[in-house]
Amino acid sequence: MRVGVLTGGGDCPGLNAVIRGVVRKGVQEYGYGFVGFRDGWRGPLEGDTVPLDIPAVRGILPRGGTVLGSSRTNPLKHEDGIRRIRETLAKEEVEALITIGGEDTLGVAARLSGEYGIPCVGVPKTIDNDLSATDYTFGFDTAVGVATEAIDRLHTTAESHMRVLVVEVMGRHAGWIALHSGLAGGANVILIPEQRFDVDQVCGWIESRFKVRYAPIVVVAEGAMPKDGDLVLKHGTKDSFGHVRLTGVGEWLAKEIEERTGKEARTTVLGHTQRGGTPSAFDRWLATRFGLHAIDAVRDGDFGKMVALRGTDIVRVPLAEATAKLKTVDPKLYAEAGVFFG
Ligand code: F6P
To answer: How much distance in Å is there from the Cα of 177 to the middle of ligand 1?
Structure first.
């Protein structure tokens, strides 16, 4: 049997560990052959392939990014996308596809499996940890580590100058990175997309922090928005996914804080540093196990499924179910962090 592998959507530390796990077990235990498709769905769409065998996966475990490349190409948006994918799979003699991706990539895999009979197994990835059906996605732990280290460093410089330091972290729809790194780094304010914030309340927390002679750290997820609808309309724009959000919420918030409190404020946008570099040990462990279980699903002919972490077990869930709903921060968890605000 020949198996195709692709990585789609935003890259994420741990992708190479999945590819390695899939290929090592597939070749060693099942005698399968592999072909890599370059840049997510663009690969099968355009017949762009990469050789994938044991030598090709040697040494890639600790490497960030993906040796296969990635893109946000959606074959369902091409009129003849399905026909072209079928042609590539036939030409490459590929009988199963392992698709490693987030909401969009797996959404396509769900439809290809369910509606077009193209045998896909999904592996969830995103640093945002916002895929339902799995307790954790790999990449998240690494991103939280990067953000926590940044917050630790920002505490000392903030205190030297008695300034407010606003740290903008990733998370368009979910505040998992903000919540976890904010708690781990001892932030004084954490703002997440799930709950609109009141700028005056944030300023109140900041002022109370200065009263005890500590410089406040504000962690804000990139998708967080103020309660004030007028502010959102005035400063909001549509992102590439068509969602309205404040562009540069960190910069914007620092300016508001300066104007309203008279305190000096600076912003650090962590951006893609959270996605790059070597995966943490936890992410390598999770990604490797996802890879091993994905190739087992192929062996079992269990298509239209996604591997997922439940507790410490790896289980299989229907792809359609897994991509149907985003996993956002539970208000109870967020409320728990509130004791540290101010
Ligand atoms: O989905 C992961 C994510 O990292 C988001 O948090 C972020 O908004 C987005 O990807 C940015 O992706 P890109 O810059 O690749 O478009």
So the answer is: 13
CA–CA dist 91, 135 (Å, integer):
37
Task: From residue 304, give the alpha-carbon distance in Å to each of 119, 183, 292, 334.
Answer: 7, 37, 17, 34
Fold of domain 2-138+279-322: Rossmann fold (3.40.50)
- Per residue in 272-323, pLDDT (tens digit) is 999 999 999 999 999 999 999 999 999 999 999 999 999 999 999 999 888 8
DSSP H/E element including 249: helix 249-261
Which range, of 122-126, 225-229, 260-264, averages the lowest pLDDT?
Answer: 225-229
CATH topology classification for 143-276: Rossmann fold (3.40.50)
Distance CA 256, CA 253 (A): 5
pTM for this prediction: 0.95
Q: What are residue 123's DSSP bridge partners?
A: 100
Q: Where are the domains of the chain?
A: 2-138+279-322, 143-276
Question: Is the Cβ–Cβ distance between 321 and 133 less than 8 Å?
Answer: yes
Q: Is the pLDDT of residue 240 over 70?
A: no
Give 27 Cα–ligand 1 centroid separation in angstroms.
33
What is the spatial distance between Cα 57 and Cα 19, in angstroms, rounded to a whole number?
Answer: 7
312 is in an annotated binding site: no
In whole angstroms, give the CA distance from residue 114 to residue 101.
17
